[in-house]
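Hi support team,

I submitted a single chain yesterday and got back a structure, but I'm not sure I'm reading the token output correctly. Could someone confirm the output below corresponds to the sequence I sent? I've pasted both exactly as they appear in my results page.

Thanks,
R.
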Amino acid sequence: MASPTVINLSGSIPVSCFAWNGDRTQICVSFSTPEVYIYQKQGSSWDKIHSLLEHDQRVLSIDWEPQSNLLATCGEDRNAYVWKLESDGKWKPGLVVLRINRAATCVRWSPSGEKFAVGSGARIVSICYFQEEHNWWVAKNIKSGIRSTVTCLDWHPNSTLLAVGSSDFHVRLFSAAIKGVDKRPEDTSWAESSQLRTFGSLLHTWKSEVDGWVHDVAFSPAGEVLAWVSHSSCVCFVHSSDTSKILSVHEHSLPYRCCMFANENLLIAAGHSCAPNLYKCAGGEWKFEKSLDSGAKALSMME
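Hi R., thanks for writing in. Yes, this is the structure output for that exact sequence:
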């Protein structure tokens, strides 16, 4: 395994959220404050080139759309902004009409780049799209069945299905197709097109065997597998071929905070144990494969 690249931007200040641009030459970071900074790689160092100052409370999530180069941020001030790099080299915030009364906790662009989702403490997911005539981003809200704070989101590759994790221990799958923005939905292995055409339809609900806040949720690259990690220190998988079956892989470790698929049969999960772990699917069953780093090595890098 290649040696990791260590980027020290803030010394000992905690990073609340970050996002890379499309070619990974720039990184957008917030250090648990209302401020957002953009750094650019200059040789072997990273230099601060922009400061985005519009939020008035802590920023909780950032996502950078690689095709349009638009930045979306959201935070405890119940606001979200879409930032656009203007011809004068400055980032300008665009208004997003969320209509929520609690913190905006997470934001994710759809793969199409035409809309994004914002989760919140108001038990709402806002699907935001641009209205050119008013020059702002408006939201259609999904409220059905969500019982607590939305903690994480991930889009299916078709930009129509949205997986939502929350602190009520559940993962839910919704239809998030917007007429006039998305193409007419087609049948998927998760739901028929007739279900997908109704915005906000609750298609599936899952709960882990062991209760725990859902920290992260992820679709596989082809969208046939959905995985999530929770505070119960386990990884859960659902295949679209059998949505009633949850495969839970329990590990005697600290909880994971994030997960991502490397391909259809490999998932990487990382969290409080200071080392990412690899899970592999063989014969339709997911199992722990190996640790991608030793805890001791990870700790020594942080000192």
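A quick pointer for reading it: The mean pLDDT is 92. Let us know if anything else looks off.

Best,
Support desk
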